[in-house]
Amino acid sequence: MRQIFxxxxxxxxxxxxxLMAPPVAFGQARGAYDGFEPAPxxxxxxxxxxxxxxxxxxxxxxxxxxxxxxxxxxxxxxxxSPGLTHATxxxxxxxxxxxxxxxxxAEQVFNxxxxxxxxxxxxxxIQWLDRSGRIVRAYIVRRCWxxxxxxxxxxxxxxxxxxxxxxxxxxxxxxRDREVPWPPTGR
Length: 187
Fold this sequence. Notes:
This protein is mainly beta. It has one domain (about 5-20, about 35-175): Pnp Oxidase, Chain A, CATH 2.30.110. Helix content is about 5%, strand content about 50%. Strand 3 (about 40-45) and strand 4 form a beta hairpin. It is globular.
């Protein structure tokens, strides 16, 4: 079953998503209960076994596979095959605060005194929690490292400026943690 996922950012420290049922085919009636309802979810980011506080934006958890076209011998048509798969960079944003995980990790790569630290790559975990705090889905993002760190001010509609920090993580791919089951609906 195909799933559709929407993200909504409600403010500092709150990322909410909606996991929606796929559209019903034309002429097919949706039953009174088809086993799948919209579920508001909250994201939690972890690395080095610690929860990263205050993440208000999470974007870029996607991957794309190149298409290789080959001409079939003796035929005027092509055969398409999968090529290399690329994971898009993961973007994390949060308001500046007393925590320094973004900056500390970025400094391991952007070292003016020499080459990057030996262990600048990390696996991170993205957990999606339901209203009751249960983990309903988790992803492991492999061998991430900071390609960009920025500290900036963002002015809201009320004229107040909020100091933000952004970390762009290049990664070598991600996978869903299949040991995290979707909880029963209770119906």
